[in-house]
Amino acid sequence: MNFTISKTTSACLWMQAGVVGNKPCFKNFNCTECRFDQAMGRVCRNNQSARESGATLTGRSGAFIFWQDKLNKQPLSRRPCIHHMKGRIDFKTCPKAYHCIDCEFDQFFQDQFKVYARVEQVNFSAVRGFSLPAGYYLASGHTWIKLEGDGIVTMGIDDFAVRLLGRFDTLSAPLMGKPLARGKKAFTLGRGPHSVSFISPLSGVVTQVNPRARNYPAVITQSPYTEGWVLTLHCPDLKNEIRDLMFMDTATSYMDNSAGELYGFIEECTGLKAADGGELVPDIYANLPDVSWEELVNRFLTH
């Protein structure tokens, strides 16, 4: 099945099943809060009752049936799991006729992989104009890791990367269930025709991609350490791999060194002594017109 999905929204389940035409989802598939889903449900229940009583239905709405019933008319190979329809996993068929309560995979998915990253109060320190959150680990390449418990970590990019490249408009990240290898590409952020790939500092399985960041990547720029987290991982060897990351004093030293290198680069390019009182702009790329995106990425974000 081929679906047309816009950059900022995903196709509604009713659209993916072919019950209705162009209908984006604006609720991140939280159907219980969707008025459209509720209205379609009422129409389909009324249609079902009318058919059972032998009535003849006319008009466009008279042809509506539940999206589950529509897909159940397809061969098994063309019945996508609801988690695939929601963009969380690669294609997987549904053998349970969309009766998820009887599905072992759905229970496993909900119990083991469905991790909701909570936005909590975070204490920050300032390191030469850049924010550094307490309790976070940093990796070279300017990604951060936050421990969530039970081998789960949250990953994002730090304030240095955000200020360096400015506002992002695209996020490309692996689907849920995909393995990531330490030292390999984890996700890619884009700005217009430019893009930058960030490296995973840990090995594990993707357990969630931030739906808000996927639909509205600018949130990564606005709140890189809280609402702008990118993905979560389940890391089987977390205890050993975490030792290679920077924490507390080493993280502060890393940010300080990165800031010093950047200030020196800005002074070299502009003649302004940013390290001696100059104000650090929030979008360095946009304010250095003679410096290319690739030069900034290769110089400051490459592993």
Report on this model:
A hairpin with a 2-residue loop joins strand 3 and strand 4. Strands 9-12-13-7-6-5-14 form a seven-stranded antiparallel sheet. It has a three-stranded antiparallel sheet with strand order 8-10-11. Strands 1-2 form a two-stranded antiparallel ribbon. The protein is 31% helix and 19% strand. It has two domains: 10-113, no CATH class; 123-303, Beta Barrel (OB fold (Dihydrolipoamide Acetyltransferase, E2P)), CATH 2.40.50. It is an alpha+beta fold.
Number of domains: 2
H/E element string?
A: EHEHHHHEEEEEHEEEEEHHEHEHH
Low-confidence stretches: 1-8, 113-118
Round the Cα radius of gyration to an integer and report it: 24 Å
Main sheet, how many strands, which sense, barrel? 7 strands, antiparallel
* Beta-strand content estimate: 15-25%
How would you sum up the global shape?
elongated
Relative helix content = 25-40%
How would you name the CATH homologous superfamily of the largest domain?
Answer: RNA polymerase II/Efflux pump adaptor protein, barrel-sandwich hybrid domain
Instruction: Strand order, main sheet: write it out.
Output: 9-12-13-7-6-5-14
What is the mean predicted local confidence, pLDDT?
86
Tally the helices: 11
CATH topology type of the largest domain? OB fold (Dihydrolipoamide Acetyltransferase, E2P)
Structural class computed from helices and strand pairing: alpha+beta
The level 1 CATH classification of the largest domain is Mainly Beta
The rounded distance between the terminal residues' Cα atoms is 39 Å
Total beta strands:
14
- State the CATH architecture of the largest domain: Beta Barrel
